[in-house]
Please model this.
Amino acid sequence: MIFKRKKLFCRALLLLVLLAAVTAAVLFALRPDLRFIVKHEFGRLSESAELIRVSEKNLNLESMYIDELEQNGCILNQSLMLVNSDNLLPEGFSADTQEYKSSGAVINRCALNAFEKLSEAVRDETGQNLYIMSSFRTAAEQEDILAQEGSDTAMAAGSSEHQTGLALDVYTDGFAGMGFLKSDAGQFVNSECGEYGFIIRYPLFKKKVTGIEYEPWHIRYVGLPHSEIISLEHETFEEYVEGLEIGKFYEYGGYIISRQQGELIRVPDGSEKTVSGDNCGGWIITVKK
Ligand SMILES: [Zn+2]
Model:
């Protein structure tokens, strides 16, 4: 009797396992977005991008005042501003924006070339077009969105990085929002945007850090090599900025990176020197050697 029951139990278990396997196979066949997420998340386990600390003795440093950066051959932009509900934009903040190629979309000037390159790559690799649904918003526009949508999905004015013009909500024909991941364009953007200066700003499983659910359509310009490091390390922008120790220098892929405070900063010598405020009282210096 006991033997019979055991046999019955084993058969039921086998049936359940088979049923689960068939359901998973059907789901996978019908849902390219799920297939992408599983493949992408597993792929990340083998990826990393290590920042190497560099001693300042090995660098040729020049001290510069922030208001004299441009005279000293540096580009001052807004690419690395950390904006969230803990780091609000300063009162009277003015985004450095420009319309992207007569598209009607206004984006931060520093992201123009990078977005053009990303769009071209999407077209070349997938045959699909990448469009901007929402980009720069004024504080008043952000307040209107909050009033319409409520605080579950919309950010309060001052805490939305759309007000910097660095955040872009993108889509392709027939695929927007969460559905963006079902398209080849969406999958390309989500796996490759780090190579083009963009990050998925609100990644999967990172709500605890960002306060925001996964948004595969919301890309954020941070520039190279930061986008590559953040993507490969599977970090949030919050974790990346906080991980840069004030006053230290790091090397990655032919670049020197440093986060500093004060009006007088030390900039390493290099072919391309960029400085951006971090919106946390400091500056992030990026120098291409
Ligand atoms: Zn957005």
About this structure: The longest strand covers residues 255-261.
